[in-house]
Amino acid sequence: MVKNIRMIYILIIAINLLYYFTLVPGVSDMDNVNNQGVVMPDEQDVFDIERINLAEGSINRSLKKPVINSSSNESNNTKTTLGKMYIRGNGANSSLANNLPQELRWEDFKIEKMKSFLNSVHSILAEDEYLIPLVDTCRRKNLNAILLVAITGQEQSFVPRSKSNAKIVANNPFNVYHSWMEYNTDIKDSTSIACNTILNLSQNRPQNVDPIQWINRKYARDQNWWKGVNKFFKKIRSYVHV
User: Fold this and answer.
1) Is residue 228 part of a domain?
2) Please, which of 41, 110, 129, 137 could form a disulfide with 191 given CB 3.0 to 4.6 Å?
């Protein structure tokens, strides 16, 4: 009788040990169990997910894939001369850029004059961390950087420094992929997307249609968007070339 009781006792202990090691989360996992008993991913797992998404050119909350991609070839042969008085370089020999009139393709201008203009409208984009990537990307795409700055004026009033979330808006002042709130990586990435979009939308333009108006048909819902961009483009262009 005693022997049978001892065997039953040993069997119960074995069952309890088996349950503990197979069905209950390990000690290291217990910190991640919420009050409903659900095991949550740890912080490193979340960080890895965000890092992968950023490497793919998106952010964790924005998984949109590009709608418009440019087939233009980028040239790495032209040296960046940002920081000097003039921005020089012929940019990429993009076949898509040939759809644009000469004034909308890359052109040299005085970088200090561009900073002066942006500072005059209290724009955060005057800072090197935003202006340099914007201009350098335009040069590589063979697009006039003045046009891209003009678009930021129409879309976000040049992102004034007084705006509470100016540093976040400045990552995507062109509102590519609908809005800076939906897509927010950095200004180099958003400038590249904006350039590709402009190059693609410039194809098959009738000769009697304004080039920015032609871009307007799909870039913005506001059919008068192009008028504002044109106004800013002419104003900035005359300012930086004085």
Assistant:
1) yes
2) 137
Is the pLDDT at 109 greater than 70, yes or no? yes
pLDDT digits (tens, 9 = 90+) for 154-195: 999 999 999 999 999 999 999 999 999 999 999 999 999 999
Q: What is the DSSP letter of 123?
A: B
- Regarding whether 215 and 139 lie in a shared domain, the answer is yes
Q: How far apart are CA 148 and CA 91, in angstroms?
A: 15
Q: Could you tell me what percent of the chain has a pLDDT over 90? A: 57
Torsional sign, CA 141, 191, 120, 146: positive
Write the single-letter amino acid at 240: V
Q: How many CB atoms lie within 10 A of CB 176?
A: 26
**Distance between CA atoms of 225 and 240, rounded to whole angstroms?**
23
- Could you tell me the pLDDT band of residue 91, with boundaries at 50, 70 and 90? very low
How many other CB atoms sit within 10 Å of the CB of residue 239?
16
Same domain for 99 and 194 = yes
The answer to whether residue 74 scores a pLDDT higher than 50 is: no
Domain that holds residue 12: 2-40
Q: Report the phi/psi class of residue 83: left, alpha or beta, with left for phi > 0 and alpha for psi in -120 to 50.
A: left
| H or E stretch covering 86 | strand 86-87
- Judge if 25 and 91 occupy the same domain: no
Q: Which two tokens stand for residue 9?
A: 């006792």
Has residue 199 been placed in a domain? yes
> Residue 116 maps to which CATH number?
1.10.530.10
Beta bridge partners of 33: 39
Q: Are residue 120 and residue 196 in the same domain, yes or no? A: yes
